[in-house]
Write a structure and sequence with these properties.
315 residues; single chain
């Protein structure tokens, strides 16, 4: 018996390709956006595209005039309640993470770069925990958790808030950015929750909102990258051809959202032989000239898995 295969278009189904294009510039993690910073580069998958990735590259380069380098598939978002901006049909979004170096966009385009901490200000703990987190955000999350009618649900909410935000003895885990975003969404304290009808009125609009669930997709990409820099040398995809060890450290701290222990960091980088000296020094380095290094690409052939194994300083 032959099974009938439905036509996605006739079934009211759309497939979008969404790109999270990340860079580190001047010690800040950056993401390529369109529509004045409110959206990630995206477009529909066309049937005549050679592959998903080929379609993605075409859309990104057309929208941003920025070529794609390293790209990996991120996640497929296909919840039944996902609809397009006009709300007419169900949308499946296939997202990708791309790593590059920031360049000025050429031609007429509304593409631009923004710090990803514009969208997740509670994640930047390199200096200290942002004041609004303890003053406003955490109290409102706790109030939402305690407002659950069912005791089991109340306990579950309280535990999720504690674990995700590093409260009540739980350590801060930089990789739980998506869980923190989801809690803020469920608690109705970000703009996207109001748009979706989860909350009548946001009691706190924290961070810059994006269209649809693009901020959720961005959070997923940040979580992936924060985890991956610990066991794969992907951070070097974001570095210039030559760099100082301090510049490398600042890039890692920008991605992780908090500081690393400088002596331990340098010791691990050198012990794993991830970099090699170029014989040159940085001309603009203050004080004593700093040595310039480059990524030792032979490490990829020598080890299937290599990384910085970061000794992160807990807040």
């Amino acid at each position: 018996m032959n099974k009938r295969r439905s036509d996605p278009a006739k079934a009211g189904l759309a497939v979008d390709l969404v790109a999270v294009l990340a860079a580190v510039t001047g010690g800040e993690p950056r993401v390529m956006t369109i529509r004045g910073g409110s959206a990630l580069p995206s477009g529909p998958f066309e049937l005549d595209d050679r592959s998903l990735q080929a379609g993605l590259r075409a859309w990104v380069e057309r929208q941003t005039s920025h070529p794609l380098g390293y790209v990996e598939q991120l996640y497929t978002f296909a919840d039944r309640d996902r609809v397009g901006e006009s709300g007419e049909r169900r949308v499946i979004s296939i997202s990708y993470l791309g790593l590059t170096r920031e360049e000025r966009t050429a031609g007429k385009t509304d593409a631009g770069w923004h710090s990803w901490y514009d969208y997740f200000p509670w994640e930047d703990r390199r200096v200290r925990t942002p004041a609004f987190v303890d003053k406003t955000m955490i109290p409102r999350l706790r109030a939402w958790a305690k407002a659950a009618d069912d005791p089991a649900q109340r306990r579950g909410r309280i535990e999720r808030v504690s674990v995700s935000y590093g409260l009540d003895g739980s350590p801060w885990n930089e990789e739980l950015i998506l869980q923190r975003y989801e809690l803020a969404y469920e608690a109705g304290i970000i703009e996207e929750a109001v748009r979706a009808g989860v909350a009548q009125k946001a009691t706190l609009v924290s961070g810059r909102a994006m269209i649809g669930d693009h901020r959720r997709i961005l959070a997923t990409a940040v979580a992936r990258l924060r985890a991956k820099i610990k066991y794969r040398p992907v951070v070097f995809e974001l570095m210039p051809p030559t760099f100082t060890l301090l510049q490398l450290q600042r890039a890692v701290e920008a991605l992780a959202g908090h500081l690393v222990h400088k002596p331990n960091f340098r010791r691990l980088i050198e012990q794993q032989e991830l970099v090699e000296e170029t014989g040159a020094t940085a001309a603009d380095a203050p004080g004593r000239p700093a040595k310039l290094y480059r990524f030792r690409r032979g490490v990829l052939a020598e080890r299937a898995v290599a990384g910085t194994k970061l000794p992160l300083i807990r807040p």
